[in-house]
Amino acid sequence: MTNIDSDSAMAIIEPAATKVRDPISGKSVWLSKMIQKATFEEDSLHVTLIRNTEHTPAHIDKIKSSLSRHLNESGWSGDIHFSLKDISVVKKNVKKKSDPVKGMSGPGMQPHGGPISKLPITGVDKIIAVASGKGGVGKSTVSVNLAIALTKLGLRVGLLDADVYGPSLPTMMRVSGQPLANEKRQIIPKEAYGVKCISMGFMVDDKEPIIWRGPMVMGVVKQFFQQVDWGTLDYLIVDLPPGTGDAQLTMIQSVDIDGAVVVTTPQKVAVLDAVRGVEMFNKLGVSILGIVENMSYLTLPNGEKLRPFGEGGGLATAMEYNVPLIEQIPLNEEIRAGGDLGMPVALSDDAIANPFVNIAKAVVAGFECTD
User: Fold this and answer.
1) Lowest-confidence range among 1-10, 23-32, 175-184?
2) Is the pLDDT of residue 90 over 70?
3) 95/194 Cα distance (integer angstroms)
4) pLDDT per residue over 143-157, tens digit each?
């Protein structure tokens, strides 16, 4: 093969590079501009990677391996050679927590009343969003059980129910009553099973509809982040409403999100919506910790697994975006009943709790390689 111009080489590597995540920025190596150039030389593809001082050798080895795999899967059969270019991180370009959020310009992106500046939540180490593009996939079930499973690992955990229109935390955690305020006029969260909790469901009667426009929803979400006395937490789990609307944008504009867990079910319609959620976080620079496939299978008495909603949706999504498929949660009556009764199965020491303990361990492990 004769030498081909760099633009053509970059066009070949782009599809693979968009599927490989930079562990430092959380974006794809394409969006984070780690691919400086690509050229063809003597039937080989030569790729120059940008490496900054935060990248470890393990990070680079993983990126090289993933790029090679995706290139081979796309049909490239020649040799691939990598070279590295070291750069220093220029601190003046690093986004500070007090800086206004960038990349949120354009129609529908600016919050009501002008830009929101990100403010740190004192005492909270990491904020994890649990999201789905579609309702009814078990996102709240995952959020509640994940929070409890993290406490079983000895961690200090808070749970924020950001689904203003359909709050389910009070029922699933069996906690109710209006919260009090402290001397600083901060909301004191309720506590259940060792988890600090806040929800719109604490503020209204069970049957009272919440008929609010977007700016009011955004105001409540911001207040839950920045005007609640969370104390000292290792993890704050945020149970987001389905979709990619006001609550999600307000959250990302208000605080630094450390990672997101995307929940789906196996069927195609749910996976398509899950992809929208993944794309939203990717575009807004939030790292995807992994995919959880809920209601994945039903275990028959003979031990066989029946998959009533299809097979492979969660795995296909995880592979497409080069993120882990953290867990496949079975369709199980105990899980459903635990949520309805306000006694989540993660409280149990039986095998039924294992999927949620596995998710908790995966979330913690996801930060151990980058901290």
Assistant:
1) 1-10
2) no
3) 34
4) 999 999 999 999 999
pLDDT per residue as tens digits for the range 317-352: 888 888 888 999 999 999 999 999 999 999 999 999
pLDDT per residue as tens digits for the range 131-188: 887 777 889 999 999 999 999 999 999 999 988 777 889 899 999 888 888 888 899 9
Question: Of the given ranges (17-31, 79-93, 117-131, 269-283), which has the lowest mean pLDDT?
Answer: 79-93
Query: SS in 3 state form for 248-315?
Result: HHHHHHHCCCCEEEEEECCCHHHHHHHHHHHHHHHHCCCCEEEEEECCCCEECCCCCEECCCCCCHHH
CA distance 292 to 290: 7
Q: How far is CA 318 from the centre of its chain?
A: 12
For the domain covering 6-88, report its CATH number. 3.30.300.130
Q: How far apart are CA 38 and CA 49, in angstroms?
A: 9
How far apart, in whole angstroms, are the C-alpha atoms of residue 203 and residue 4?
64
Scan for tokens 């795999």, then name that residue: 69
Q: Cα separation of 247 and 226, whole Å?
A: 14
What is the rounded CA–CA span in Å between residue 286 and residue 263? 16
How many Å apart are CA 175 and CA 195, to the nearest integer? 11
The CATH architecture assigned to 124-368 reads: 3-Layer(aba) Sandwich (3.40)
DSSP string, 35-89: EEEEEEETTEEEEEEEEETT--HHHHHHHHHHHHHHHHHTT--SEEEEEEEEE--
User: Smallest Cα–Cα separation from 174: which of 18, 357, 340, 303?
Assistant: 340
**CA separation for the pair 314, 269 (Å, rounded):** 12
Going from N- to C-terminal start, the domains of the chain cover 6-88, 124-368
Nearest to 331 by CA among 347, 348, 316, 311: 311
Most confident of the ranges 21-30, 120-129, 251-260, 360-369: 120-129
Which single residue is written with the structure tokens 């990672």? 259
Tell me how far apart the alpha carbons of residues 29 and 50 are, in angstroms, rounded to a whole number. Answer: 9
- Specify whether the CB–CB gap between 198 and 156 falls below 8 A: no
Contacts of 147 (CB under 8 A, 6+ apart): 157, 158, 159, 195, 235, 237
